[in-house]
Design a protein that fits this description.
Radius of gyration: 22 Å
Oligomer: single chain
Number of domains: 2
Number of helices: 5
Strand content: under 5%
Amino acid sequence: MKNITVTVDDDLYRKSRLYAAEHDTTVTALVREAISSFAYGETDAQRRLREEGELYARLDSRRERRVDEGFATSAREVLYRDGSSDDHNAAS
């Protein structure tokens, strides 16, 4: 990942910091989003969908590693494995 330096006037900087704070983000994230939108032709919604897909792919790969290492992959599996589920015990 590369860093860039952008020079803006004081008023624009102040307003962008306020906007970022109001939207629980950073000025860097706002600039990254703006550059991505014209560099990749993505809208904000498209970018979020792409990032969501990337996140799920990372989570799936972690889940697969955990299964390969013999760990339970969900709270439900932990409950049933440990015999801690009331529903499971009642059905037995």
